[in-house]
Amino acid sequence: MTSRFFMSDSESESESSEEEIINEQTGISAAAYVFSEDEEDTKRIVRSAKEKRYEELKNIIRSIKNYKKNKDMSNLLSSFEDLCRSYTKTLPVVQKEEGGKTPRFFIRCLAELDEFIQTVWEDKVGRKSMSKNNAKGLTTLRQKYRKYAKEYDTDLAVFRENPDRADSDAEVEKEDQDDESEDENNLMDAATFKKESSVTKSAKKFQKGSDDEEDDDDDSIDWGPDSDDETSSSDGGGGMFPLREKFLKKTTDRDDDDLKRKRKRLPRENKAKDEESDDDGGWEKVKRGSSMPMEKPKMFGKDDEINVNSVHKKLNEIMAARGKKGTDRKEQIELLHELLNVARDNTLGPAILVKVQFNIIMSVYDYNPSVSDPMKVEFWEKVVLKIDELLDMLIADPELSIGEQVTEETESLEKPPLLVRGCVLTIVDRMDEEFIKLLKACDAHSNEYIVSLRDEIRVCAIINKLLKYEEEHGMPSDICRVYLRKIEHLYYKYEPRAAKQTLGELPTTDDTSLAEMDRLCKYIYVRDNTDRLRTRAVLCHIYHMSLHDKWYEARDLMLMAHLQETIHHSDLPTQILYNRTMVQLGLCAFRHGNIKEAHNALLDIQSGGRAKELLAQGLLPQMLECVYLVSAMLIEIPYMAAHEFDARRRMISKSFHHQLKNSERQSLVGPPESMREHVVAASKAMRNGNWKQCRNLLLNDKMNAKVWDLFHEADRVRKMLGGKIQEESLRTYLFTYSHVYDSISLIKLSDMFELPHSTVHAIISKMIINEEIMASLDEPTSCLVMHRTEPSSLQSLSLQLADKLYNLVENNERVLDQKPFFTRGVQGGGYRDRREKGNWGDRRDRRDRDNQNIHRRDRCGRKWYGQEYHVKKRI
Amino acid sequence: MAEYDLTWKLGPFLDRHLVFPLMEFLSVKGVSEFCMELVPIADVTLIFQIYDETDLQRAKLELLSSTNMVDFAMDIHTSLYPDQPATTELPDRRSRVVSELKRLQTETEPIFKIFSDNEVQKQLQASRDHRTLMQFLVDNYDFRPEMLDTLYSFAKFQYECGNYSGAADYLYLHRGLVPGSDKNFLNGLWGKLASEILTQHWENALEDLNRLKEFIEANLTTSPLQALQQRTWLIHWSLFVFFNHPKGRELIIEMFLYQQPYLNALQTMCPHVLRYLATAVVINKNSRRAAMKDLVRVIQQESYTYKDPITEFLAHLYVDFDFDAAQEKLQQCAAVLENDFFLVACQNDFIENARLMIFELFCRIHQCISINMLAEKLNMTPKDAERWIVNLIRQAKLDAKIDSQQGHVVMGTQAVSPYQQLIEKTKTLSFRTQMLSINVEKKATARYSEGPSWAVSS
């Protein structure tokens, strides 16, 4: 944890180191500099191997000091081991440069450590109160130290004779620091942070980080993260010195006051820097020129020539470690940042900058080892910034092109046309995915979620930027990908203007989200070669059109896309998108009064009671279920009335029947409370032809609040629903009570159901033509006259027998041909349709026909979604 | 009726030459005001608006500009601008066209010499296979394969000049000799169809139409989009044939409504053709009942993209059962039909059949209708209506009686006895079972022909 927090810091700190160099060279007053904006194009000075090594040592020493303060033995131990290791590495340099004389600062550290160990060891009370880890660490440390210190006995003795002598040369100021300077240091740090766009954030992060570190340190034996901490803190410190030094030299009293004031304003716990304290005088002596190169991270040797090639080589070197087991990912990111700064300082051209920047982003992505866990918000924000910068760079330079198709060999970083290998799309894709993951990780009810959601604007801005870039430079396949990204941020958003356009209140030429979707999707339809992008684009397109009440267009697109057959084979997110689209389509159909289509579209989602799962959505408004149940009611109730005595009645909607049965099972049915109870009560009222009660049960304040008000244009939906209830109640009434009447006056009916005469006439005509009721109209008296031709029981039985025989033959044929059911169904259906129809009440025959109407493929070959399409969607 | 004029919608899918008849028709009808956007198959896109007769002429001139009918163009030019002499451009083109014609004629002369030979004529009649024919020509008459291309370009040139019958003849020869894989084969077919249409040889045109259809369906190399485009063209071109050929009215239903790819093309590319399909279904007495259901479904599906009085009439009648609205639409239909190039001939048929449909539906719904009301719905005087009904009853088309005292038509009882129904139901069963057993037998013998034949005993 700690290291992650630190990582985000390191950027700012390394920047500060770079800035301080600028300072040295340009001679801008430090105070002014601290609060000025970044300046990036100064030259970088190359450091020698000695400096590099020494700095590493000093970093470790600093952390040792830190741990000493905290009495964190286990970390102290590990740092000590690091120190030993690192010094071994430094030995050749020491031999060469110092003539084999052990550097004084190293000895000083050893001596101090020795003192420290002794004091701690003697403090028996304190030792007892130590944690187990610490105690163990202390023991081990003591042993190791003794062993190690033997080699330096003489040096130590010399040192002890004259401990107060300042360390030689440039090292002085690094070793000797007092509390005052520490404060300055902190201040400096804070000031540097301020230059970053997110001052407060990083400051907070830092603080948090060091807190965490503390917590961690107590119990961690694990070495990996520890070393992370050390590097980061030491690195940061390394960058800090010269700045501070520089600063102090030029600082006047006024400046000091000023800074102190600032410090108060930015109070910050900075334990990581504690060890940097020494006395003022120590570093006042230092000459500015000599100290400077020491501080730089050891990227290049002093004499190395910095050019594109060397930077590129270095980059490859760093990146080669990527993905390897022992790689310190954090360090890698830091190194890359350094490299970026080097490249920038030496103005090596945009190509290498882009390349390094690109690799930084990749490394930040790498940082999170788990694929399923979201990145840290801070990291993500950083990536967003970086990507933004990268895109700006790309857009700013038309000479530069970046792409996957560029190979290592064809890459051209120096001469135009500049070619860089890499794919901006991928990193933006990843950024977007991480954003979704972040959102998913939030609690949808929390404030955190809403805050994260605000970042979507930034994501969209980046996607737009990328889109602009790709439209100019990209290949069609890439443009398709960006378009889809954009579409996926667009399709679910309701734009009131687009809705108005649908209603004809805005001219169709206006540029709304609908037009935008249309443009993007059509491009993908034409250019895309992968099925997945197209499928998703189609689904988003349908979703968007459904959302804006473009029912016909949405329906046609759904039918033409033929997705029903293939959607099972696609990946889960696409299947979920398909389900969601289906739901939107269903809701859209409902708003348009196409009850049957609404029912069919929602059936699959609702039937298993797994709606949440199928839609991969935890929060589902009741609206969805309600719309489904009401649609089912409007279809099922008249159907039930028509087939009341039919033995083989088929259920159209299982879940609707389930609700009905539930309520029947109750011994006492109270007034409806929940949405379902309302629908069930309404269904019962409708069954009795009591349309007014049915309507009142569905359209009342309670239901409005729960369901209907969630629709846009709720009034239109309510009005449509009221009308449907009237019509279907009339049909139910006729089915249920027609056998009681000899004739019914149409005028009476239209009074009863408050429907216009023509509507009643049309409904009844349709029923007669479809042979749903056996009756005919008597035009002069405007009556419906029933034809009663009830067959005798023998007759009806023989008719049933004939039906069964018919089925038998059909089954036999099917078995023989072994044709799939649907083909047969089509043929059978066609056959029946053309058959002469008996015109008295053979209800079974009708029923079969009804079923086929639902099941049959449309004549025009557009297969209707819904009933015949039972997807086993596993999510 | 300008709002229902389809010429501008049809134009883009037709050849330039095929647009002439439509425009000719429009100028006869004196369509005073309509907008027209023509994007003929030729790459040139012409967008122009016609407001009166002279504009129509100008449009024709535009159309002619990329054809070789220079004389025709000059005629129109003089009638359009009588005071201006023809621009130099036209005579120039004329001379160019003539010289081109001469050149092609000399090039094709040896070809026609070969084909005028009696022996070759015989071979042409007898031979079915282009390869043997070709071989025969190459062997005996010094025929070179390049000549085929010359022949094709000459035919094209003739067509451009307006000599359609000549073009048809040459293309006939060309088709006989060229393999299906030739680059010009499909173009030749289209050219042949256009020539036949323009020379009004409907029998041949139908033949060509079917050939073209087969070719399009069999050709798997074309992309779906191209196939769709070609089908759309074919749909439009075939209108000429279907509404002129005696059998066309049945064929159009078969092709547009029941051939899946064509129905798809119709729905996606040109829902306006629904008008022609609907008319064809209405005037086709035989298959009306079956086709109507499917047609109505298509009309409903496309109701948001296309509607005109004819489709609305059917929708009102069969979806809403709103007889008054249907009646209103029927009156509009008459005007639309009168101004439609293809449908003008079926106007009376349509009105008569539409009436019959309304009446039929009425009878199915009602048991007693007053003649006055009926007359109103059918847009007839009560006397005419009564006469009409009497005729229907006499022709045994209607089981009804007239109650002349009250002025009612009383329908006969429609109920079918259960016995009849039972017979109806089982009639086909025995036949189907028989077929089944025969099939089983066939399969069994096929499978066990070498083994023991214990499977089937009968």
From TrEMBL, chain A:
Its main location: cytoplasm. Residues 10-22, 169-186, 211-232 have a biased composition (Acidic residues). Keywords: Cytoplasm, Initiation factor, Protein biosynthesis. It is found in: Cytoplasm. InterPro entries: EIF3C, EIF3C_N_dom, EIF3CL_C, PCI_dom, WH_DNA-bd_sf. One of its GO terms (biological process) is formation of cytoplasmic translation initiation complex. Coiled coil: none annotated. SMART domains: PINT. GO terms for cellular component: eukaryotic 43S preinitiation complex; eukaryotic 48S preinitiation complex; eukaryotic translation initiation factor 3 complex. The keyword Lipid biosynthesis does not apply. One of its GO terms (molecular function) is RNA binding. Component of the eukaryotic translation initiation factor 3 (eIF-3) complex, which is involved in protein synthesis of a specialized repertoire of mRNAs and, together with other initiation factors, stimulates binding of mRNA and methionyl-tRNAi to the 40S ribosome. The eIF-3 complex specifically targets and initiates translation of a subset of mRNAs involved in cell proliferation. Component of the eukaryotic translation initiation factor 3 (eIF-3) complex. Belongs to the eIF-3 subunit C family. This is Eukaryotic translation initiation factor 3 subunit C. It comes from Homarus americanus (American lobster). The lineage of its organism: Eukaryota, Metazoa, Ecdysozoa, Arthropoda, Crustacea.
Automatic annotation (TrEMBL), chain B:
One of its GO terms (cellular component) is eukaryotic translation initiation factor 3 complex, eIF3e. Coiled coil: none annotated. CDD domains: eIF3E (cd21378). InterPro entries: eIF3e (IPR016650), eIF3e_N (IPR019010), PCI_dom (IPR000717), WH_DNA-bd_sf (IPR036390). Residues 241-416 form the PCI domain. GO terms for molecular function: translation initiation factor activity. Keywords: Cytoplasm, Initiation factor, Protein biosynthesis. Pfam families: eIF3_N, EIF3E_C, PCI. GO terms for biological process: formation of cytoplasmic translation initiation complex. It is found in: Cytoplasm. HAMAP family: eIF3e (MF_03004). Component of the eukaryotic translation initiation factor 3 (eIF-3) complex, which is involved in protein synthesis of a specialized repertoire of mRNAs and, together with other initiation factors, stimulates binding of mRNA and methionyl-tRNAi to the 40S ribosome. The eIF-3 complex specifically targets and initiates translation of a subset of mRNAs involved in cell proliferation. Belongs to the eIF-3 subunit E family. Component of the eukaryotic translation initiation factor 3 (eIF-3) complex. The eIF-3 complex interacts with pix. Interacts with mxt. This is Eukaryotic translation initiation factor 3 subunit E. The lineage of its organism: Eukaryota, Metazoa, Ecdysozoa, Arthropoda, Crustacea.
